[in-house]
Each structure stands twice: as structure tokens, then as C-alpha cells.
């Protein structure tokens, strides 16, 4: 089964917790804090494997979570960092944030990697908080939660040549004739329900990859027929072979077919207007095909290349393959990325960004929220008084007390931060 689009949940591993511990060896003088730091959580990483050509592995598994880091240990021992969770994907995979639609990674080359969900940092142990004023602190940080998000994983096939055209014009038959691919061929529309790839070699031993893309119809760019489901695979092709049925046996006009398909391609992506294209006039062994070809040449505008062929008699196929190979030699392989990858900033708080915001809940409680204050909250160990006092000092330093007073908070009012509630003391 061919799978080319899935939605999955990914989560980086949480960081390990820091430890509160002290040296108590019998014959070692000057004992002190000895709690180690927690290890970092593992990243969720996508890696390209050129042996894959479908997203089938994602069909039955929709959740991917990396392992958390190891907690800190005694004698200032650092917890073990978790290894990254590596997931293999085929070349041509694009990863998008499901919520924003922004592209996280565009993976095209073998062994290319991208971090999709970053693991959390490990918390610091009490050995890191020792000072002259507090030589034996009972403070340790919890590990930071790993990044988690829903992503849409799309596959856009990497092929040199893409076959486009209406259903039943002979695209699959052409691919089966020029390569060892075995696409389904039958006398009805939409025989091809998934793209087929084949390696083609010309008589002078030049080879290239050809993709048979499912038949397009009018309105495909709006999702009619197979629509967007397979139009995306045209994006990465360097050359288009526009296959047209010149026999007219189905009552369609070849020129109208030509115009309709080109309109669908440009409506889907404006850049496809400038994609090199060769017109393949197929089924030339049928009656009236030559007359239709002459009429087509009179109607078509611009400098277009037309190659008449017959996949039954194999006439003209060698000349077509020579022309394709010649044109591919002139077209650069890497023109520009198909998708613009967003620049992601992780664990970085801009100076302009407020560390917290205050709002009022329906029950009258004051609600604190914001990426920075929530991150500090998650790293605080509320089972220890010194950690709670430290968190209170951090909030005061951010200006939380001042902001609450401006919003009208008074002694005894409830302040809520995530799932935690505390009382405001002025």
C-alpha cells in the first residue's frame, strides 16, 4: 500500500531530575552537597533512508516518544543523557507543524537528519546551588519537559521525470515499456491509484527516474478526482512528460486536454508554468491519430516539443528517451528547496517578550501564564521549602508581585499558575 501523508504526534524525552544529596563518608572530612544533575531527554529525529519509498511505517504507529534523561545521582554524578529516537523516512519527506502549517524540515538526501521534537534539559542537582551564604542547599531542579507537537508528514516523490495527463492516455503503459516497473494497466479510468517509479535507461546508457503520476482531471487543484493527493508529487520533478491521447477515441479533443492539464498544474503551483515540458503524442498507431496531431500542432502556441509515439508498436520511444536524457543533462538537479523551512528557536526567550502575562478567571482568581514562567514552574521541586522560596524570589524578580498589585490583587486572593494555586500576600 502506498502512503504519502500522515499526521503523527511526536514528543522529545523529558530531562532527568536533579538530586538533593550530601556526602556522608565516614573518613572523608568536609562533607557537603553532592547531588548530581539530571541527564538530557532524547530528541525525536527524522533520518532519510533511500531504501524507503512510502510512509507505510507511520500507518500503524501515530505516537513517537523519546526516552527521558536519567535522574542525577549521588557523589555529583550526572544522569545519563538519553539517545535520540531516530525514525527513518523516505527521500522527499516534508514535515509540517500541524497547528501552524509551517515547514519544520524538508528531507531529500540519504542520511540527512532533522530534529523534529527537542528533548528537555536535565535539572540541576543541589551541588550546583551551593554558595557561601548557603553551603548546604536543599534545592534541586526537575528536568525540563520535552517538546511535543502534532506534525503532518508528507512524501513528495523524488523523480527526474513526471508523467502527467488525463486518465487512460497511456502513462502507465509507457512506464511499463521503458522500465521494469509493473504498474496496473486496464481499460478504465483511474487504473493508477498511487504513483509508480521506474528507472529508465536510454540506448546510449543514460539513466533517470520516471514517475507515473495518477491521472488528473479538471478541478484537480481543488481536490476533484485524486486532486491534491498526488499533485504534490509533481513538485520535485525536473521535467514533465505531458502524455496526450491523439486517437480521440474517447471523444475528447487533444488540444483541450493539453490546456486543461496545464491550467491545473499552474493553479496548483505557479512555478510549474516554467517547468520544462515535453509533449508525448501517444496512440499514433490508431486511425485518425495523424490528422489529430496535425490539428494539434496548428492550435498549440509557443515553442513546444512534440514526440509522436506508440506504446503498442514502440515507434518513437527511443527518440523520446534520447530527448529526455539530453534535456535532463541541461537541467540542474538542485534548483531551490521545494519548501521554505521555518527557523525554530528552542529554549530562547527574547528580551522583548514578556516572561509572563496576567488575566482573570471566571471564578475571580488571577491567572499567570507565559512560556518562561511555566518553564520555571515545571523545573521547580515543590516538595522542598528552599525550592519553593527560590521560585517565589524568581517570580518577584520577574515583576509578578508588581503586576498582580496593578491588576487589583489583595491579601488572600487566589493566584493560579497552570494546575497550582497559591494565596497572594501583599
UniProtKB/TrEMBL annotation:
<dbReference type="InterPro" id="IPR036726">
    <property type="entry name" value="GTP1_OBG_dom_sf"/>
</dbReference>
<protein>
    <recommendedName>
        <fullName>GTPase Obg</fullName>
        <ecNumber>3.6.5.-</ecNumber>
    </recommendedName>
</protein>
<dbReference type="Pfam" id="PF01926">
    <property type="entry name" value="MMR_HSR1"/>
</dbReference>
<feature type="binding site">
    <location>
        <position position="192"/>
    </location>
    <ligand>
        <name>Mg(2+)</name>
    </ligand>
</feature>
<feature type="binding site">
    <location>
        <begin position="165"/>
        <end position="172"/>
    </location>
    <ligand>
        <name>GTP</name>
    </ligand>
</feature>
<feature type="domain" description="Obg">
    <location>
        <begin position="1"/>
        <end position="158"/>
    </location>
</feature>
<feature type="region of interest" description="Disordered">
    <location>
        <begin position="71"/>
        <end position="92"/>
    </location>
</feature>
<feature type="domain" description="OCT">
    <location>
        <begin position="348"/>
        <end position="426"/>
    </location>
</feature>
<dbReference type="InterPro" id="IPR006169">
    <property type="entry name" value="GTP1_OBG_dom"/>
</dbReference>
<dbReference type="InterPro" id="IPR006074">
    <property type="entry name" value="GTP1-OBG_CS"/>
</dbReference>
<feature type="binding site">
    <location>
        <begin position="282"/>
        <end position="285"/>
    </location>
    <ligand>
        <name>GTP</name>
    </ligand>
</feature>
<dbReference type="GO" id="GO:0005737">
    <property type="term" value="C:cytoplasm"/>
</dbReference>
<feature type="binding site">
    <location>
        <begin position="190"/>
        <end position="194"/>
    </location>
    <ligand>
        <name>GTP</name>
    </ligand>
</feature>
<dbReference type="GO" id="GO:0003924">
    <property type="term" value="F:GTPase activity"/>
</dbReference>
<dbReference type="InterPro" id="IPR006073">
    <property type="entry name" value="GTP-bd"/>
</dbReference>
<dbReference type="Pfam" id="PF09269">
    <property type="entry name" value="DUF1967"/>
</dbReference>
<keyword id="KW-0460">Magnesium</keyword>
<dbReference type="InterPro" id="IPR031167">
    <property type="entry name" value="G_OBG"/>
</dbReference>
<dbReference type="InterPro" id="IPR045086">
    <property type="entry name" value="OBG_GTPase"/>
</dbReference>
<dbReference type="InterPro" id="IPR005225">
    <property type="entry name" value="Small_GTP-bd"/>
</dbReference>
<dbReference type="InterPro" id="IPR036346">
    <property type="entry name" value="GTP-bd_prot_GTP1/OBG_C_sf"/>
</dbReference>
<dbReference type="GO" id="GO:0000287">
    <property type="term" value="F:magnesium ion binding"/>
</dbReference>
<dbReference type="InterPro" id="IPR014100">
    <property type="entry name" value="GTP-bd_Obg/CgtA"/>
</dbReference>
<keyword id="KW-0547">Nucleotide-binding</keyword>
<keyword id="KW-0963">Cytoplasm</keyword>
<keyword id="KW-0378">Hydrolase</keyword>
<dbReference type="GO" id="GO:0005525">
    <property type="term" value="F:GTP binding"/>
</dbReference>
<comment type="similarity">
    <text>Belongs to the TRAFAC class OBG-HflX-like GTPase superfamily. OBG GTPase family.</text>
</comment>
<dbReference type="Pfam" id="PF01018">
    <property type="entry name" value="GTP1_OBG"/>
</dbReference>
<feature type="binding site">
    <location>
        <position position="172"/>
    </location>
    <ligand>
        <name>Mg(2+)</name>
    </ligand>
</feature>
<comment type="subunit">
    <text>Monomer.</text>
</comment>
<feature type="binding site">
    <location>
        <begin position="212"/>
        <end position="215"/>
    </location>
    <ligand>
        <name>GTP</name>
    </ligand>
</feature>
<comment type="function">
    <text>An essential GTPase which binds GTP, GDP and possibly (p)ppGpp with moderate affinity, with high nucleotide exchange rates and a fairly low GTP hydrolysis rate. Plays a role in control of the cell cycle, stress response, ribosome biogenesis and in those bacteria that undergo differentiation, in morphogenesis control.</text>
</comment>
<feature type="binding site">
    <location>
        <begin position="310"/>
        <end position="312"/>
    </location>
    <ligand>
        <name>GTP</name>
    </ligand>
</feature>
<dbReference type="GO" id="GO:0042254">
    <property type="term" value="P:ribosome biogenesis"/>
</dbReference>
<feature type="domain" description="OBG-type G">
    <location>
        <begin position="159"/>
        <end position="329"/>
    </location>
</feature>
<keyword id="KW-0342">GTP-binding</keyword>
<keyword id="KW-0479">Metal-binding</keyword>
<dbReference type="InterPro" id="IPR015349">
    <property type="entry name" value="OCT_dom"/>
</dbReference>
<dbReference type="InterPro" id="IPR027417">
    <property type="entry name" value="P-loop_NTPase"/>
</dbReference>
Amino acid at each position: 500500500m502506498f502512503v504519502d501523508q500522515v499526521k503523527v504526534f511526536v514528543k522529545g524525552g523529558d530531562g532527568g531530575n536533579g538530586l538533593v544529596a550530601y556526602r556522608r563518608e565516614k573518613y572523608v572530612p568536609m562533607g557537603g552537597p553532592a547531588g548530581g544533575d539530571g541527564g538530557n531527554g532524547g530528541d525525536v529525529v527524522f533520518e532519510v533512508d533511500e531504501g524507503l519509498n512510502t510512509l507505510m511505517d507511520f500507518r500503524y504507529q501515530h505516537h513517537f516518544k523519546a526516552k527521558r534523561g536519567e535522574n542525577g545521582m549521588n557523589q555529583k554524578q550526572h544522569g545519563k543523557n538519553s539517545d535520540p529516537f531516530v525514525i527513518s523516512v523516505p527521500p522527499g519527506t516534508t514535515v509540517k507543524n500541524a497547528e501552524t502549517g509551517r515547514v519544520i524540515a524538508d528531507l531529500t538526501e540519504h542520511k540527512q537528519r532533522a530534529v523534529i521534537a527537542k528533548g528537555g534539559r536535565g535539572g540541576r542537582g543541589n551541588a550546583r546551588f551551593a554558595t557561601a551564604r548557603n553551603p548546604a542547599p536543599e534545592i534541586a531542579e526537575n528536568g525540563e519537559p520535552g517538546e511535543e507537537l502534532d506534525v503532518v508528514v508528507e512524501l513528495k516523490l523524488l523523480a527526474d521525470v513526471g508523467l502527467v495527463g488525463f486518465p487512460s492516455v497511456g502513462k502507465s503503459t509507457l512506464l511499463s515499456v521503458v522500465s521494469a516497473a509493473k504498474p496496473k494497466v486496464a481499460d478504465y479510468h483511474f487504473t493508477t491509484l498511487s504513483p509508480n517509479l521506474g528507472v529508465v535507461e536510454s540506448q546510449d546508457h543514460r539513466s533517470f527516474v520516471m514517475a507515473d503520476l495518477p491521472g488528473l482531471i479538471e478541478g484537480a487543484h481543488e481536490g476533484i478526482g485524486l486532486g491534491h493527493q498526488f499533485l504534490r508529487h509533481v513538485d520535485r520533478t525536473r521535467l514533465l512528460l505531458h502524455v496526450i491521447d491523439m486517437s480521440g477515441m474517447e471523444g475528447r479533443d487533444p488540444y483541450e486536454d493539453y490546456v486543461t492539464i496545464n491550467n491545473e498544474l499552474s493553479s496548483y503551483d505557479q512555478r510549474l508554468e516554467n517547468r520544462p515540458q515535453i509533449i508525448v503524442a501517444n496512440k499514433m498507431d490508431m486511425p485518425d491519430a495523424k490528422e489529430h496531431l496535425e490539428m494539434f500542432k496548428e492550435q498549440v502556441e509557443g515553442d513546444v516539443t512534440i514526440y509522436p509515439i506508440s506504446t503498442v508498436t514502440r515507434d518513437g520511444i527511443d527518440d523520446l528517451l534520447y530527448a529526455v536524457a539530453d534535456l535532463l543533462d541541461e537541467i540542474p538537479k538542485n534548483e531551490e528547496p521545494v519548501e521554505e523551512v521555518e527557523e525554530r528557536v528552542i529554549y530562547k526567550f527574547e528580551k522583548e517578550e514578556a516572561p509572563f502575562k496576567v488575566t482573570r478567571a471566571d471564578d475571580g482568581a488571577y491567572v499567570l501564564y507565559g512560556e518562561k514562567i511555566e518553564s520555571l514552574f515545571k523545573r521547580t521541586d515543590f516538595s522542598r521549602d528552599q525550592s519553593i522560596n527560590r521560585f517565589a524570589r524568581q517570580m518577584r524578580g520577574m515583576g509578578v508581585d508588581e503586576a498582580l498589585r496593578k491588576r487589583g490583587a489583595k491579601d488572600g486572593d487566589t493566584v493560579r499558575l497552570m494546575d497550582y494555586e497559591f494565596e497572594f500576600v501583599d
